[in-house]
Write a structure and sequence with these properties.
Chain A: It holds the Pfam family ThiS. The complex is a heterodimer of chains A (about 60) and B (about 250). Chain A is mainly beta and about 60 residues long. Chain A is built from one helix and five strands, in the order E-E-H-E-E-E. Chain B has about 250 residues and is of the alpha/beta class. The chains are: A mainly beta (about 60), B alpha/beta (about 250).
């Protein structure tokens, strides 16, 4: 299905958020995730299904003021 | 002092815009800070190196919601930051205007209420407005962070009398001057006025020598706090001779 990952269109075979994280090689322990603007805790990624057009954000620590 | 955490250093330092990761490391050390601010962005390059700097610094992490313009964005970002940094501290920024980066006080209070109810320890980036400050305390905040001037402007304490009023009005509430500080003298002035800490970034990161500037800020904040604790003399409109008149020779 077609989804939006960090602002870019992506075609994925992943059916859950955790599968998507794995598919794209993110370090699961050092990123935070949101689906359609809602925070998804680490423990809920494997039970959170993706849908076509889903907007997924995968964030990590960055410099800030 | 800040949600039950006592700090030795009253300088909080941002981690953005340094010329290199090594300069950032050295600036953190030279400043003596115990609290550094960080952000969340889309996973890209260099994440590991930055995580290592955070770990090695030994500092408490204060994640921000920089760039958020709505309650929802700020709340979601705060929730993501809490998981990623394993801290309930959040520097809450809800920006109302792109040019001034002035906080949106209405959205700020609403986001603060949601986050405080969810167990966050909120450090709200606000203005010197007293009523907004009252609303933030009612929402559950136990710290207020009024701006000195617009973020990154280096203008210092733009409304010094307003900030003085705020300090008096919120006696006993930890107040941190956040944003707009450009020089150590400005940070020191804030500390002499009785503010509890100063948070800055650009003034150090964009100095010609950020490490030396970090050290200068650390000392200014220490000196300003010591001066406040020592009690400044009252200001007078007229001169008052300091040398005694008694025993002066008549030579005229």
């Amino acid at each position: 299905m077609q989804i939006d990952l960090n602002g870019a269109p992506v075609t994925t075979a992943a059916e859950t958020l955790s599968a998507l994280i794995e598919e794209h090689g993110f370090d699961a322990a050092s990123v935070a995730t949101a689906l359609d603007g809602v925070f998804i805790p680490r423990l809920m990624r494997s039970t959170t299904p993706l849908h076509g057009g889903a907007k997924v954000e995968v964030l990590s620590p960055m410099q800030g003021g | 002092m800040f949600y039950g955490t006592e700090l030795n250093s009253r300088l909080m330092l941002g981690t953005a815009q340094y010329p290199s990761p090594q300069v950032l490391r050295d600036a953190i050390t030279a400043s003596g800070t115990e609290v550094i601010t960080v952000s969340l962005r889309r996973e890209g390059q260099g994440g590991d190196a930055f995580r290592e700097i955070l770990r090695d610094s030994g500092c408490r992490i204060l994640p921000n919601t920089a760039g958020c313009h709505s309650v929802r964005e700020a709340v979601t970002t705060a929730q993501m930051a809490r998981e990623l940094f394993d801290t309930s501290w959040i520097k809450l920024e809800v920006i109302g205007h792109a040019d001034t980066l002035q906080p949106d006080p209405f959205a700020l209070v609403e986001a603060a209420r949601i986050l405080c109810a969810d167990g966050f320890e909120v450090f709200p980036y606000t203005t010197e407005d007293l009523i907004v400050g009252e609303r933030l305390l009612e929402a559950g905040c136990r710290v207020l962070m009024p701006w000195g001037a617009p973020i990154g402007s280096g203008q210092g304490l733009r409304n010094i009398e307003g900030l003085r009023t705020m300090r008096t009005h919120f006696a006993g509430v930890p107040l941190v001057i956040d944003a707009g500080i450009g020089a150590p003298s400005q940070a020191m002035a804030a500390m002499e006025m009785g503010f509890d800490a100063v948070l800055l970034n650009t003034a150090v990161a964009k100095a010609l020598d950020p490490v030396a500037m970090a050290r200068a800020f650390g000392r200014a904040v220490t000196a300003g706090r010591a001066a406040y604790a020592a009690g400044l003399m009252p200001r007078r409109d007229m001169a008052a001779a300091s040398t005694p008149i008694f025993g002066q020779a008549v030579l005229a």
